[in-house]
Amino acid sequence: MTDPATTPDPSTHQKIDTSVPHSARIWNYWLGGKDNYPVDEEAGDAYTAVFPGIVTIARGSRAFLRRTITYLVNEAGIRQFLDVGTGLPTAENTHEVAQGLAPEARIVYVDNDPMVLAHARALLYSSKEGATAYIDANVTEPDVILESAAKTLDLSRPTALILSNILGHVAEYEQARSIVDRLVGALPSGSYLMVNDGSLGIDPVFEEAQEGYNRSGAVPYNLRTVEQIASFFDGLELVEPGVVPVTQWRPDPGSPAEVVAEHGGLARKP
Questions:
Q1: Cα separation of 37 and 54, whole Å?
Q2: Which parts of the chain have pLDDT scores under 50?
Q3: If residue 107 lies in a helix (H) or strand (E), which one and from where to where?
Q4: For 178-247, what is the HEC assignment?
Q5: d(Cα 69, Cα 253) in Å, to the nearest integer?
Q6: Which residues are CB-neighbours of 240 under 8 A, at least 6 positions away?
Q7: Model pLDDT, residue 128
């Protein structure tokens, strides 16, 4: 591993609010990570007390990310990745999977969480042949994201756009659609879009737990119907098996493929 491309500003540590739970830190807690605070563990435990299956969803989402990136590298030949809403580093991050298969892969992470920024050094370690960079931006700023990403990625070449569990943080569905359209529209033919998010209408216990979480003071996360999640891929060519529970998207041999309230898919821009 090479030295990181940049060093995070130490002042970011001062911006971390530990008085309210934060989705990235709670997600990290469910994945077995240590980058969280008591308030996050309390919120995470309250959530799992209502819906223990959230841990399965969190880990299923991470496995889905690994499998889609593996497909993109090995079968689609993609070597550039724009991962928006990356969250805190855990195991099998985008650059680790991509560069483990193709060391020349280039990855740009996007997040606006100060704790993620404080951990940017961990994210920015890259293979010698490739590159890894971090952008401090919000998903609602697609033009800022694209302008900054172009410093590391050649956006005239096919690129994979990764939107994993981030669009639910955009309250208005039409705004989320607009963001996806703007980002995908800036990428050339042969690029790919990967989306996965919590789904509505599958598990009422999950929905109850999510409503409780949204009242906790944390930034709300909005579940969407499977049809709404599928609509993010309008105009693109879905890779089989289409938009399905993340556990059922090309599952590893022998792994359980139970139905979970988290749907995702991968599609190619024609």
A1: 19
A2: 1-14
A3: strand 106-111
A4: HHHHHHHHCCCCCCEEEEEEEEECCCHHHHHHHHHHHCCCCCCCCCEEHHHHHHCCCCCEECCCCCEEHH
A5: 17
A6: none
A7: 92
Q: Work out whether the CA dihedral 69, 71, 74, 76 comes out positive or negative.
A: negative
Estimate the crossing angle of helix 23-30 against helix 54-74, to 10 degrees: 90
pLDDT, position 15: 62
Pairing mode of beta strands 262-268, 237-238: antiparallel
pLDDT at 124: 67
- d(CA 104, CA 79) in angstroms, rounded, equals 7
Integer Cα distance of 98 and 108 in angstroms: 12
The SS3 of residue 20 is: coil
Per-residue confidence (pLDDT) for residue 13, from 0 to 100: 43
Residue 206 in tokens: 């999950």
pLDDT of residue 90: 72
Tell me the whole-structure pTM to 2 decimals.
0.87
pLDDT score at 74: 98
What pLDDT score does 51 carry? Answer: 86
Look-up of token digits 């997040």: 111
